[in-house]
Every structure is written in C-alpha cells, then in structure tokens.
DNA sequence: CCTAGTTACGTACAGCGTACGTAGTGCGCT
DNA sequence: AGCGCACTACGTACGCTGTACGTAACTAGG
C-alpha cells in the first residue's frame, strides 16, 4: 500500500531483488537490452514504456516495478552500452591508450547514435561508467599529474568525442523520423546556406567556402581534435 | 487548400511575410521571445505549442502558421538567444578575443540553461548563429591558418563550453521538474557514489577522492579548459 | 500459518504534437 | 472594380506519451 513512495534515489542504489514476493520475470539487463534494441532499430523516440514492455512481452505498468521513472530506463541503456567498452590492458603509453579509448567511444556512438542525446542529461555514475573511468585512470598511470587533472582529461576527451559525433550525426539521427529523405533535407539546407553566404553579409564565411581544400576528411578532423586535446595535457606541451 | 505541403525546408528559408492575406498578428521575434520567456521561467518542458500560444494570446493551431514544426520553434529560440552575443570589435589579440567569446557563451548558457539541451540537435545555421560565426572568424583574422582550421577551432571551443556547462547544470536543470530538492538528490547520489568507491572496486577513483586538493574551483577548471583548447591551435604550441 | 511486501497489469487521466476542416480576410491580377 | 487565391485564425479530434492508482496473485520472514 504505502510502498510506492516517491523518494529520491539512484536506480543503482536500489537493489535489483529484495527477496520478498514473486520472482521478477526479467533482470535489469533484459530490460536494458530490449530498450537498446528498440533504440538501435527505430531511434530514441521508439523507446517508450509501452514499446519496451511490448518488446519484453509484459504489461506496460509492470515495467514500473523495475524502473521507477523513464529517466532510469535511460540510465540503464547508457550503462548497458557503456559495458561495450573494451577495457584492455594499459600498455604504458598513455597517449596511445587514450587515443584507443576515444576511437572506441566514437565507434560505440556510431553503433548507437541515440547515445549522444542521452549523454547530456544522464549522470554517468552507472557501474559500467565507473568501470570505464577507472580503466581510463589506469591508462593514465604513466602520466605524472594529480588525479584531478586526469579526470579533467577524461572528461574533456569524452566531451569532445561526444560533441564531434553529435555534429557528425545531427542530421542522420534526426532525419530518421522525418517524412523526407536526408538528401532532400541537406539539399535544402545547402541551398539556403549558399544563398546566405552569397548575400555578402558574411565575407569570411564566404571565403572559407571558396577556400579550396579538397573534400573534407572527417576522420582526419577527428584525429586532429584528439591530438590537440591530448597535447593540452602532455608535459612541457 | 493545397498549400499545406509537407515539404522539407529550413524555417530561415521561408519568408516571414508573403504579402497576401491578413496581416500576421505576430513576428517571429514575438514568438521566439514568448518561448524563451517560458523556457527561462519553467524549463524547456514548459515550452509546448499550447503554452506558447497561450503566452501569445492566440489559439494553439494558429502558431502553426508561423512555425511549421515544433523543432522550428526550437530553432527560433536558439537564434533569439544567439542574438544576445556581444559582437565586439576584434582587438587583434585572437586568443584574448576568443576567451572573451567563450566566457560570454558560458554566461549566456547560465542565463538560459535549457540551451544546452537544444545545442545538440539544432543545426546552428540561423542568422544570428552565422553572424556569431562570422564574428569569431573576424577575431581569428590575426591567426595565420586556413579557414578550415579556424572553423575547427570555433567548433571545438563552442563544443567544450557547451559540454562544460552541460556538466555544470546537469543536476540543476533536471531537478527543476522533480518533486524533491537538489540537496536530497545530491545527498543520495553522493552516498551511493561513496559506497561504490569504498567497495574497493575502483582503487584509482578512490585515490582521487582521497586526494586532498581543497574545494574545487569550477571557474579555474573552466579557464584551464579554454587555455588548453586554444593552446592546441597556437603556432609552435 | 499469517501477513506484509512484491509482482503483475488494466484502467484512466492529463498532456503532448499536429492533421484536417472551415471561416474570414485582403493582396494581386485581370 | 472585382474575382480568386493565398493567407490567417482556430476548433475539433486522433494517436501517442508518462504515469498515478486500484486490484489480484504470490511468496518469504516472523
């Protein structure tokens, strides 16, 4: 009766099983996996309590026994894919190791494009996130710096990767739910942008368009960015 | 009759006024201002088509004459606050100027905390965003580098500022709509985190907690971050 | 054994974005 | 001048959302 208290809690602090009552039909991992499956297939908007419940084959409201709020479902999802990180053995070369981590994160976000929308809004203290953070700190053992600085490094690198992928995917993820194609969308935007630039109101922007730099190599842009971030933390850099 | 085509378009490409028919009762600026007012007062979730219409004093569906999709309303909002940037005269010291721009952006996002949620998802080619970009490029005139690099700089700096503020505000903006206080929320999260760290599963994380570095000076963290980003673009840096 | 705490889930409500139909208005063209 | 069309305005309605609440079945601890 009175067990339905609306009390502040982190889902990770609430035990998955308390012992009383019937055996739960699912684990948190089941639920997270179902939600991730839906998001991968149909974007984040396809993840509704009803859809996840249907995917699991249970009533909608039964989900609330496992996940008190929708936001907690998001936390489960983020934790689940955070577990996809390969926590390799540090090599002793912290720069190379962190590059590897960053590339992995990028690949992970390409696999799960909805992640970028969840990263800004979820806390990042889920078990797998903590494991990943600990792994990064292990990679940074060779770097002589206080832990505070190392955590700043990890945060900045992750942030940059997220922002980068977010820009990369901003059309792709959005376009999924629109009734027209990405080509159309881009064509319209480029036409508009070209018109603006041609208006003469933005001379430097126009110059940058005119600058002949060949086709943009996104991978190179990404790698340059990583290098710059790491440079900022290298001794005598 | 047939004028309600669902055609891909950027709202900025659609003229605000076509000449035919009755005078529109509002300008885009009116609508953006109303939405911004609501978001400032009640968070982004308070911005619904119905609420904005009520704030303007018109019927809900009338809004759709001005704003074909909700997403376009978001674009109007982002453009409106982008116009709050002070496009000062460049001083010739590109580093100082970009620092000033970044600090301004941070202040702007503190004034409108909902912006961080919109920044990842909106395109950023609105008139005021273009003006701001052009201004940044003007500040970067003294830097000898191709425009491609300068744009990478602006993107990275903006991205880092956004990420930083996002982390800073992740609780604050969220907590607004929860039925308990931020103190409670934080207490619960810290208790949980402390427990995890104390479990011994994360030795380096535990060490970083134990590290005595005095109270965290967020402003200093922010400034360090800016410095590192700019260092990555400084000649012989 | 009993009972308190859980699981399961149907119903219901308030709110959302928005498709569509209709009525009224005034510019542009003939 | 006046016809017609593009536009504004907006009520109604639909399908969807998160989730509060009530009820019935179940099981482990006292």
From TrEMBL, chains A, B:
Residues in HTH tetR-type domain copies: 25-85
Gene3D superfamilies: Homeodomain-like, Tetracycline Repressor, domain 2
Gene Ontology molecular function: any one: DNA-binding transcription factor activity
Source organism superkingdom: Bacteria
One Pfam family here: TetR_N
Keywords from the UniProt entry: DNA-binding, Transcription, Transcription regulation
Segments of the chain annotated as binding DNA: 48-67
Signal peptide: none
Entry coiled-coil feature ranges: none
InterPro entries: Homeodomain-like_sf, HTH-type_TetR-like_transc_reg, HTH_TetR, Repressor_TetR_C, Tet_transcr_reg_TetR-rel_C_sf
Gene Ontology annotations of biological process type: negative regulation of DNA-templated transcription
Protein name, UniProt field: TetR family transcriptional regulator
């Amino acid at each position: 009766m009175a067990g339905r208290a609306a009390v502040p809690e982190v889902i990770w602090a609430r035990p998955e099983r308390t012992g009383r009552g019937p055996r739960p039909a699912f684990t948190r991992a089941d639920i997270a996996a179902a939600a991730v499956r839906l998001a991968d297939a149909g974007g984040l908007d396809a993840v509704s309590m009803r859809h996840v419940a249907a995917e699991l084959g249970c009533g909608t409201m039964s989900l609330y026994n496992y996940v008190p709020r929708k936001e907690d479902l998001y936390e489960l999802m983020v934790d689940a894919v955070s577990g996809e990180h390969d926590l390799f053995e540090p090599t002793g070369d912290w720069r190379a190791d962190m590059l590897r981590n960053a590339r992995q994160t990028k690949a992970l976000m390409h696999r799960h494009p909805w992640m970028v929308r969840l990263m800004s809004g979820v806390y990042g203290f889920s078990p797998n996130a903590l494991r990943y953070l600990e792994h990064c700190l292990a990679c940074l053992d060779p770097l002589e710096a206080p832990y505070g600085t190392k955590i700043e490094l990890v945060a900045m690198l992750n942030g940059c990767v997220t922002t980068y992928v977010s820009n990369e995917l901003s059309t792709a993820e959005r376009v999924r739910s629109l009734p027209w194609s990405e080509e159309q969308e881009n064509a319209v935007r480029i036409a508009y942008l070209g018109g603006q630039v041609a208006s003469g109101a933005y001379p430097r922007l126009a110059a940058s368009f005119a600058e002949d730099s060949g086709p943009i190599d996104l991978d190179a842009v990404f790698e340059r960015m990583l290098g710059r971030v790491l440079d900022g933390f290298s001794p005598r850099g």
